[in-house]
Amino acid sequence: MAETVDLVSNVSDTARWVAAFRAVESARPDALFHDPLADRVAGERGRAIAAGTPRLMHNGWNLVTRTKLIDDLITKSVEQGCDRVLNLAAGMDTRPYRLDLPAEFPWVEGDLPALVAEKNELLAGESPRCALTRTAVDLADPAARDAFLDEALAGAQRALVLTEGLVYYLTEDNVSGLAAALARPEIGWWTLDVNNQALVRRMNKATSDLLANAPWHFGPVDPLRFFADLGWAADDVEVLVAAAHRFHRLPWFMKPVTLFPQPDPRKPLRSTWKPWSSVVRLSHAAASR
């Protein structure tokens, strides 16, 4: 058990975990996406973490589905006028190297200095498909975060902010602070994955060994209402179980769940007791139109 706990020493290690499952997916003949750099950035540690993943997340079906849904949302947003992507807590994400983006399209990553330095070393010599900037910043420091946003958004009119796999490691106060910081006219959309309280409880129980050093926190009874109260409205919501079933990635032992009505994040009173996770795209009243 101690060895399992030690594999994930902090939240940053989960970036390697996600990359390991992107590599597994990329090797499939029917892959939903192709990430030739995923295995490199995952490394031995990422592969070891993936090997210790609990049955509930068999083969990383949820992480693979999340990746595909966010890929599609980014493409959709660019088609709708997105002029920049800001990937906060970017971890080992490699989308700038694999998505079909214009060469001049600005993509800005922000993450902790140690992770940025490691990623720069791992990807040295690789050429992104867009205009990538990688910045070392402690996003937990409000002043540093605001300074980063000022610089990263200079000249933007309809940026998309991505916080994949981030908010559920934060407290509600932290998420509220982040939501307030992102309520800027230059930001058109905020894309993230959210979980309700029932799922956070289930996942913390299932991953109590693996994620003992990186437990989940944020998971309101009604996540969409939480963000709506802060001025952020959901204009796109995809429930992971339904999407995974559509993509033929749902584990066999979970398929019976799809025979029954699925939780609807937009109608929480009917599904507060049912665990659900969704990829959502939010927009704020402050955003330019």
Automatic annotation (TrEMBL):
Transmembrane segments: none annotated. The keyword Ribosomal protein does not apply. Pfam families: LCM. Keywords: Methyltransferase, S-adenosyl-L-methionine, Transferase. InterPro entries: Ppm1/Ppm2/Tcmp, SAM-dependent_MTases_sf, SAM_mthyl_Trfase_ML2640-like. GO terms for biological process: methylation. GO terms for molecular function: methyltransferase activity. The keyword Methyltransferase applies. Its EC number is 2.1.1.-. SUPFAM superfamilies: S-adenosyl-L-methionine-dependent methyltransferases (SSF53335). It is an enzyme of class 2 (transferase). Belongs to the UPF0677 family. Exhibits S-adenosyl-L-methionine-dependent methyltransferase activity. NCBIfam families: mthyl_TIGR00027. PANTHER family: S-ADENOSYL-L-METHIONINE-DEPENDENT METHYLTRANSFERASE YKTD-RELATED (PTHR43619), S-ADENOSYL-L-METHIONINE-DEPENDENT METHYLTRANSFERASES SUPERFAMILY PROTEIN (PTHR43619:SF2). This is S-adenosyl-L-methionine-dependent methyltransferase. It comes from Nocardia neocaledoniensis.
